[in-house]
């Protein structure tokens, strides 16, 4: 569906009005943060962020010790495809409720196979008219970041509002899911209506780790398809020891007038001692090239890994 400039602006204002108040936390430090994690690591993150060419938001939590660090933690960062992680949670919740089944087949009409968007699903079945299981669509959406599978699943879930309400119902408030991939592609500003604070995405990752929102079967399935993520190999995983398990979801915008709105990665790193580190890095409105933006994420992930794995 095409949005006019007026409707895109209206959507942005509606999302902003429903969002929590933002905080101007260039070096946000809260009582819940552990000094051992936040002091030296914060300085290192600040130095890396200064070279990024954009605005960098970071959320980190050792999911075993609960040590936490937030850097520039305003809920204004556009998620882009990172939002496919909470969409998958909402779909799997409906599976747990018996409204859907992972093995059920979904008929995909040719009308869904639109050009000009990232879709391994469309590349495999350009003429549509194919059945795919719900599990296959979820894997396309999460592991391969497929945009058409994403919009199909949003439709199956009952729309963006239903997904947004589900996530807020988990207690995660500094997040808004109001626009599909097609809507985001219709106008540049629409992507900013799907926003999330780094700490809020860490909160969702913590819920995944705890297994407190979904059944064990659904939680294990989501963990597995996030481990299989093939996009963004030079981001969170880029500088980690080869073979380090990382369950993650990337997000990437286009570039307009030399500015990349979003270069993101959010996930859970499995440490050598078996502990897990949730980490979210958003690089927003950057004028640097893709290599620099991805290196920013990789360097922050490596700094955090080295800090907690030592």
UniProtKB/TrEMBL annotation:
<dbReference type="InterPro" id="IPR023650">
    <property type="entry name" value="Beta-lactam_class-A_AS"/>
</dbReference>
<keyword id="KW-0732">Signal</keyword>
<dbReference type="GO" id="GO:0030655">
    <property type="term" value="P:beta-lactam antibiotic catabolic process"/>
</dbReference>
<feature type="domain" description="Beta-lactamase class A catalytic">
    <location>
        <begin position="58"/>
        <end position="283"/>
    </location>
</feature>
<dbReference type="InterPro" id="IPR012338">
    <property type="entry name" value="Beta-lactam/transpept-like"/>
</dbReference>
<dbReference type="GO" id="GO:0046677">
    <property type="term" value="P:response to antibiotic"/>
</dbReference>
<keyword id="KW-0046">Antibiotic resistance</keyword>
<protein>
    <recommendedName>
        <fullName>Beta-lactamase</fullName>
        <ecNumber>3.5.2.6</ecNumber>
    </recommendedName>
</protein>
<dbReference type="InterPro" id="IPR045155">
    <property type="entry name" value="Beta-lactam_cat"/>
</dbReference>
<comment type="similarity">
    <text>Belongs to the class-A beta-lactamase family.</text>
</comment>
<dbReference type="GO" id="GO:0008800">
    <property type="term" value="F:beta-lactamase activity"/>
</dbReference>
<dbReference type="InterPro" id="IPR000871">
    <property type="entry name" value="Beta-lactam_class-A"/>
</dbReference>
<dbReference type="Pfam" id="PF13354">
    <property type="entry name" value="Beta-lactamase2"/>
</dbReference>
<feature type="signal peptide">
    <location>
        <begin position="1"/>
        <end position="21"/>
    </location>
</feature>
<keyword id="KW-0378">Hydrolase</keyword>
């Amino acid at each position: 569906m095409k949005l006019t400039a007026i409707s895109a602006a209206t959507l942005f204002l509606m999302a902003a009005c429903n969002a929590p108040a933002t905080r101007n936390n260039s070096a946000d430090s809260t009582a819940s943060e552990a000094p051992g994690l936040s002091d030296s690591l914060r300085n290192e993150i600040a130095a890396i962020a200064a070279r990024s060419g954009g605005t960098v938001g970071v959320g980190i939590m050792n999911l075993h010790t609960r040590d936490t660090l937030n850097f520039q933690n305003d809920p204004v960062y556009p998620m882009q495809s990172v939002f496919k992680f909470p969409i998958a949670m909402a779909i799997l919740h409906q599976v747990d409720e018996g409204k859907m089944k992972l093995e059920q087949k979904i008929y995909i009409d040719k009308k869904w196979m639109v050009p000009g968007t990232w879709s391994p699903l469309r590349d495999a079945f350009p003429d549509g008219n194919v059945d795919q299981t719900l599990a296959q669509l979820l894997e396309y959406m999460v592991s391969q970041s497929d945009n058409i599978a994403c919009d199909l699943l949003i439709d199956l879930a009952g729309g963006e509002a239903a997904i947004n309400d589900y996530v807020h119902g988990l207690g995660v408030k500094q997040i808004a899911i109001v626009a599909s991939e097609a809507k985001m592609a219709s106008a540049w500003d629409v992507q900013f209506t799907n926003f999330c604070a780094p700490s809020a995405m860490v909160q969702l990752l913590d819920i995944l780790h705890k297994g407190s929102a979904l059944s064990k079967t659904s939680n294990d399935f989501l963990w597995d398809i996030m481990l299989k993520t093939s996009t963004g190999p030079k981001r969170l995983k880029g500088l980690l020891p080869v073979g380090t398990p990382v369950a993650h979801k990337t997000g990437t915008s286009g570039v307009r007038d030399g500015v990349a709105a979003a270069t993101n990665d959010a996930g859970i790193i499995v440490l050598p001692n078996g502990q897990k580190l949730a980490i979210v890095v958003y690089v927003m409105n950057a004028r640097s090239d893709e290599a620099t933006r991805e290196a920013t994420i990789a360097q922050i992930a490596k700094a955090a890994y080295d800090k907690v794995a030592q």
